[in-house]
């Protein structure tokens, strides 16, 4: 009986879904954006886990950006995992060739349908932090270190 209760307890603890997806699709002679995003997202997830959060990690390839399908998949995963928070991570180069590393936290709110809960929806951002660097710093970038710093900023802000 105690073993059953011990295995059920983590599922009852609210979790944070850490979702990473880049904006820059793969291209010849371009950085490995999917690799950078995965590394950054995993480092954020590790830092949140070390900060006492139950984390579910999910990444999507920048080669197949389909916002509707991706959003539905992440909401289904969050709902199935009992997550109440979404932490979105991204590493990309913007239109001015500025390297951006971003972390945003959103509440996941019940989506009501006919008086019952039919799933989740993403609320307004609760926290945003980002770093903007010149693109030429990319070869020297330590995304893991920046991810840990940015996750620590979120944890400090959240104060749970």
What can be said about this structure in brief?
This protein has 160 residues and is an alpha/beta fold. The chain has 4 helices and 6 strands; from the N terminus they run αβαβαββββα. It has helices at residues 2-12, 33-50, 67-81, 143-158, and strands at 15-21, 54-60, 83-93, 98-113, 116-122, 127-134.
Poorly predicted regions: 1-10
Net shape: globular
CATH class: Alpha Beta
Helix content: 25-40%
Q: Summarize model confidence as the mean pLDDT.
A: 87
Please state the structural category. alpha/beta
Helix-strand string: HEHEHEEEEH
CATH fold call: Rossmann fold
Count of DSSP H/I helices = 4
What share of residues are in beta strands? 35-45%
Note the main sheet: 6 strands, mixed
| CATH architectural label | 3-Layer(aba) Sandwich
The tally of beta strands, per DSSP, is 6
Distance between the termini: 30 Å
Radius of gyration: 17 Å
The total tally of domains equals: 1
